[in-house]
Amino acid sequence: xxxxxxxxxxxxxxDRVRSDWYQENENISTYKIKDSDIIWIISPWLWxxxxxxxxxxxxxxxxxxxxxxxxxxxxxxxxxxxxxxYVDIYHVISKKTYDQVKxxxxxxxxxIPFWVDQKLWFEISNKENLRKKYEVSEKDFLIGxxxxxxxxxxxxxxxxxxGPDIFLDIxxxxxxxxxxxxxxxxxxxxxxxxxxxxxxxxxxIYFEMVDLKVLNELYNILDLYIxxxxxxxxPQAILECAVSKTPIVSTDVGVASEILDSKSIFKPxxxxxxxxxxxxxxxxxxxxxxxxxxVKFKKMFEELHEN
Length: 307
Fold this sequence. Notes:
Rossmann fold, 2 domains, five-stranded parallel sheet
């Protein structure tokens, strides 16, 4: 059995997932689509770049991360079914996405969250030195957000499925009662939050693009990471926080209900009730650490290959 993963090169989490897979599973993987038995369309929107002749000949699995039905128009539907004719089974990274894809196809769907690399994400015990390194005070209450919040077309319009407006409302409310609050931002397209923080005089530090070592250190200086998305596949930040023992609360999206304690999941209007549970999140994340996190994927491929 040889598996080929579609190439993406988009500086996105899936690039890292693809790299992890080839590194850990060299014996059952190939970089040549012609030599493969199974094609894994790991980036669904780029399926058109794959040779149709190979898609017809091989077993095909396609990963879907989330579907925003509010924006799912006729063209999206046509694209889905054009690709669907080549797909044998679908992979999704959360049970929430399973329910979404189930509305569109009768083909088999398997839900497995992506793995997490404990060599990259881990707890750093000396928080005091870390805070000194990043020039933040022990008195500062640091809230983190490391995913984009702005649409790419104009760098002004908020990407509403990520919930930056919800994040802004929460932070603004908290800041009114705690002037030691400071926001740590990372990632591209943070323009919506940055512009609004400047208008409201909410203090923040922005690290546009950092390497994974720095990102793990940023997780480790936080007092709280907040996910405010309306629609998500992951987000992978939930697992990264869980493994690095970063306190996290989240809206009920993606893998949140599979990893976090129920008390850590909130409705936007009831944020004040949310309570991070480091121990429960860490415990639930352990089955997704490499190499254990890849076991279910291997089983999925083996079953597809045999059938």
